[in-house]
Amino acid sequence: xxxxxxxxxxxxxGGNGTEAAKNHFSKAVEEALxxxxxxxxxxxxxxxxxxEKLYEKKDGLAxxxxxxxxxxxxKAFGFADQGKAQASGALASLSxxxxxxxxxxxxxxxxxxxxYARGAAKSVQDVATRLxxxxxxxxxxDAVEFVRQSPALALGMxxxxxxxxxxxxK
Length: 170
Prior knowledge:
The structure is a single chain. By secondary structure, this protein is mostly helical. It is 88% helix and 0% strand. The protein is built from 4 helices and no strands.
């Protein structure tokens, strides 16, 4: 004997009610899958939009960075040229000071020491002239060549300069 039950409100018996529930559940699952696919597609569309915005922003920032880098590079070269001109001027002034005092050395210590001072003044003036004539690139190449030829001397000079700067800014 098979017992049948009636699902309230459906008017169907148990065998048909189970089928109706299965159909209803299958439709709900299909709707959920379709909704999930739609949400996935929407998420991919939005991710694509955000990705495009990100790339546009990145490209804009990269362009800005290149422009600013160029500006700062020009400023740095300007400051370096000013420093080179000031160093050359200081050396020329030092040369003139030595030359002016060479006569005093002649009188007080002897002509031999005055000639040494004049020779030193000429050497300092020659360095100032060479510094004025060379570009920053040439000076950089000269510095690299000097370090290659005598690394120990270059290291010693760097240490001495560091010590002096440390004492000045202490």
